[in-house]
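User: Could you write out the 3D structure of this protein bound to NAP? I've included everything you need below.
Assistant: Certainly. Input first, then the structure.
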Amino acid sequence: MNYEELMLRAITKAKEYKYTAKPNPVVGAIIVNENEIISEGYHEKYGENHAEVNAIKEAYNHQGKKFQSFSELTLICTLEPCSHVGKTGSCAKHIVKTGFKKVIIGAIDPNPKVAGQGIKILENNNIKVEVGLFEDLIQKQNKFFFYKHKNNKPYITVKIASSLDGKSHYENKKVFITSESSRNDVQKIRANYDAILTGGNTLRIDEPKMDARVDFTVNQAKKILLTSKSHNNELDFFNNASVDIFQINDLNKIINSYKDSEICSILVEAGPNLVNAFLNEGIVDELIVYTSTKILGEKGVNWFDGNNTIENYGFKLESSYKINTDTKEIFKKDE
Ligand SMILES: NC(=O)c1ccc[n+]([C@@H]2O[C@H](COP(=O)([O-])OP(=O)(O)OC[C@H]3O[C@@H](n4cnc5c(N)ncnc54)[C@H](OP(=O)(O)O)[C@@H]3O)[C@@H](O)[C@H]2O)c1
């Protein structure tokens, strides 16, 4: 069997579960003998079976027909099987118990709870292990997951909508700056993130839902609210959502509190006070700016004070798109 082709197949098919597996990484597993694929499994939904477990479960249906013993089979998995007992038990131990003799792994799991321990369990039980096939693709596919464990903090993106004259809003008033198409684009962006963060003022003035309203199934993001004031629990923001509320304003402390959690990415959707506070802390990795052709004029509140610009915070323009009459720009840190 061509292991390269099989690993690419596992990577490609794992992608289908990007929105339902998050905040977990997407993972694919394929079980083969010398001539054919016996079974495949994917981590389809957060909290449910890991890919290897699904593939093994399916393989049992073919035992005695396509193969006799698991020792004849090779397991290919995109990410190192977990060693720790999380929600679903240790996959590495499950693989040992099943009786495989060979496992091909794409990338080592960067989670310090695993980080090579899964491989050790396999090797200590006389399983031949090969590691590194299309590692770069797997790291790219699970960009936030690898970033979080490398940097010990979630990936932070700030999204803002700006008028042509650089304003965010009118004081104490809800206003739509960008087109419906841009706002639909934001829904898709939300679907990518593990958490969405905002501040008390935006909650009180805009009363946003801040969920991803898309036409595909999503494990909705956790919501994070920063407020020192009391809030109305009846707002849509709190509907069917897990919400973390912080009454402190130390952003580093707040973000640090997620370093041992499953949250690998946070989308900040807030007004100028909170956005500038995030930028000043230097903890933002990416900025997405939607600019419309609207002018808010003197009554509008500036995104940035004086001559300050996104570039002054060390960002450079990475890409720019047109969405109807709006422009969408993505800025990343100038490394
Ligand atoms: N154009 C856009 O893209 C966009 C997006 C979102 C919001 N907005 C507009 O922005 C306006 C509100 O802007 P805003 O920045 O004042 O409100 P915000 O987004 O609610 O952020 C500021 C609030 O966050 C809380 N906070 C906690 N820690 C903080 C820190 N370290 N630094 C700053 N704030 C901290 C405070 O809430 P408490 O006061 O509750 O303690 C503070 O009032 C609204 O009118 C809304 O319509 C525009």
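Residues 160-161, 168-169, 174, 177, 198-202, 205-206, 226-229, 249, 251, 269-274, 277 surround NAP (CB under 6 Å).
User: Perfect, thank you.
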